[in-house]
């Protein structure tokens, strides 16, 4: 793990507030799901739900719902990794905004390459490095306390970079400029993100409530493409995952790990003011 001075990593009061939030966060929706198989995610799920879990016997119902939610979140991570393109064991990947590190470990398992994860939460970084050590992959999967807008990694050192639901905490033009710097020519960038729908105008009430809940700043859909093109990142795939994530939220709303934001997400998705997108782009 790379040790950095917090004063050098956290550049603003807002970043300090976000880091403080995640340093203190011990939400069961993240921890209990990760306990299923040791892959700790900090994103949402997609795919067909096995609704039979709701009909389970009382003594197994909660356990089965938790396992199903975790499966859907792992499917989401697999879909993201599917879009990273041709990655080999000799390549290097960057998980920008890595959370507790589950996707980085999955990437190493799939591609056999080196993976670096970064977060502005020192607690997340410490936790993720412990998980990599427990799995015996800490020689190839390493997590660092760094700022995704200024990582310190070498120019052209990454074959692929991804953000999984972490772009709403930063300025997109700054972020994509830094990603573009780090990617090799022809390298691939992938993000999965929630974004508000420009067609319906500004942020809806539901989107504003999501912002407030997570201390984030959800961007309009158009901002992603403007910022990518400015950074020589040319989209090659855009996938609307909105319909695929709604069942996850419907199941989560009936689980023991609800956080109170589930109905707000469902409202935003159903009214069309909020989209859940995957965008893959090549560095030219």
Overview of this structure, please?
The protein has one domain: Rossmann fold (3-Layer(aba) Sandwich). The radius of gyration is 18 Å and the shape is globular. It is built from eleven helices and seven strands. The chain is an alpha/beta fold and 284 residues long. A seven-stranded mixed β-sheet has the order 3-2-1-4-5-7-6, with helices on both faces.
Distance between the termini: 31 Å
Number of helices: 11
Helix content: 40-55%
Strand order of the largest sheet: 3-2-1-4-5-7-6
The average pLDDT is 96
How much of the sequence is in beta strands?
Answer: 15-25%
CATH homologous group name: Vaccinia Virus protein VP39
**CATH architectural arrangement:** 3-Layer(aba) Sandwich
Low-pLDDT regions: none
CATH top level is Alpha Beta
Say how many strands there are.
7
Write the layout of secondary structure elements.
Blueprint: H1 6-9, H2 13-24, H3 28-34, H4 58-82, E1 92-96, H5 102-111, E2 114-119, H6 122-134, E3 141-145, E4 158-164, H7 172-182, E5 183-196, H8 205-214, H9 221-230, E6 233-240, H10 242-252, H11 262-271, E7 274-283
Parallel strand pairs: 1-2, 1-4, 2-3, 4-5
Antiparallel strand pairs: 5-7, 6-7
Helix pairs in contact: 3-4, 7-9, 8-11, 10-11
